[in-house]
Amino acid sequence: MKIVDIQVGRISVPLRTPFKTALRTVKSIEDIVVKVVTDTGHVGYGEAAPTAVITGDTTGAIIGAINESIKPQLIGLSINNFEDVMQRLHGSLLKNSSGKAAVDIALYDLFGQLHNAPLYKLLGGYKKEIITDITISVNEPEEMVKDSLDAVGRGYKTLKIKVGKDPLKDMERMKAIRKAIGYDIQLRIDANQGWKPKEAINILRKMEDAGLEIEFVEQPVLAHDFEGLKLVTDNVSIPVLADESVFSPRDALKILEMRAADLINIKLMKTGGIYNALKICSIAETYGVECMIGCMLESKISVTAAAHLAGAKSIITKIDLDGPALCSIDPVEGGANFEEYKIILPEASGLGFVRVPEEFFNND
Ligand SMILES: C[C@H](N)C(=O)N[C@@H](CCC(=O)O)C(=O)O
Ligand SMILES: [Mg+2]
Predict the structure, then answer these.
(1) Which of the residues are catalytic?
(2) Exposure string (b/e) for 223-248, b if CB count within 10 Å is 16 or more?
(3) ipTM over 0.90
(4) Which atom of ligand 1 is nearest to the CA of 135?
(5) What residues contact residue 14 under an 8 Å CB cut-off, 6+ apart?
(6) Mutate to test the pocket of ligand 1, among 320, 321, 326 (most ligand atoms within 8 A of CB)
(7) 160 is in an annotated binding site
């Protein structure tokens, strides 16, 4: 099964409501899609999200990385020697994790097709069904209460609340949400780097004292501030999850050696796809640290790949794969079945897509 072509296209999907974090506001998913074609007529699909404020990857940079650096390395290689293909892909250029992720995902789709098995089974086959949280954007407290109640009405049992805009207001937000939804629903929070270390310690202790029962806090401080992250981890009881601080297996190793966080958030757009995400799973297993699998603003294509990984690995115990649930439409047939909080993995080979619209690849 030889790679004969790699095509790049675009997918655009309006969100149900604007997505707001401490870092950005977005109204629609505007991602890059990739199609890897083989001499046997098989096609693998991938996707990249240009989340410049987190990964540094813009739309133009992703397209350039794939067309100028990745594609020339891969044409003619055989999926049968998958290790060689992965080495060439991940060695083709530095950084550019989102562009690498799109191609890596498409190649894993082909790897599954080559071996005629769903990817999650080839990677471990731990479970066929996973349960995701849903994200509540940072807004005025009343609006966040309304959005939280809507999410609970849709059946979600875990909400990930975006904070990090203003510590005093964040406290108000969390008190209002907890009061409205009660204690049967789990609350995790994501500050997206919005607090300073001492500010984070202060607000998290207040949340503990107020009995808000926060499952964990995601990325309270700046991504590069490993010492600040450790200071927070050492000084609060709420577990700390490293998100923007961990892109590569090397980052994961450093964070875990320092004991700077209690949990790690794996996202394919940060790791450059499944190949390196698997290494982070092994590192985390070695340290006995559980992982979350997360996503950026991604549609069903790349979130299906993340769901296959989550279904394969027991160390992934927390799921934040709500990209498709935030979308107003789903233009892709097949892949994982997203039924609100329940994600069911497909039994078809590879990632299991049935139809990815050809229009995505008409680049006029
Ligand atoms: C969408 C997901 N639940 C999420 O919150 N992902 C990121 C932010 C993604 C973005 O800004 O596109 C996260 O910080 O966990
Ligand atoms: Mg996060």
Answers:
(1) 162, 267
(2) bebbebbbbbbeebebbbbbbbbbbb
(3) yes
(4) 3
(5) 27, 28, 29, 327, 328, 329
(6) 320
(7) yes
* Residue list, ligand 1 pocket, CB within 6 Å: 21, 24, 51, 135, 160, 190, 192, 243, 294-297, 320, 322-323
**pLDDT tens sequence across 203-252:** 999 999 999 999 999 999 999 999 999 999 999 999 999 999 999 999 99
Distance 241 CA to ligand 1 centre (A): 13
The per-residue pLDDT of the chain, averaged, comes to 98
Query: Across-strand partners of 47?
Result: 33
Which ligand ends up closest to the CA of 190?
2
- Cα separation of 241 and 258, whole Å? 14
- Please tell me whether 290 is known to bind a ligand: no
**How far is CA 236 from each of CA 169, 255, 322, rounded to the nearest angstrom?**
20, 17, 28
What domains can you pick out in the chain, each with its CATH number? 3-116+357-361 (3.30.390.10), 121-354 (3.20.20.120)
Q: Does the model's pTM come out above 0.90?
A: yes
For the cut 80, the answer to whether the pLDDT of residue 41 exceeds it is yes
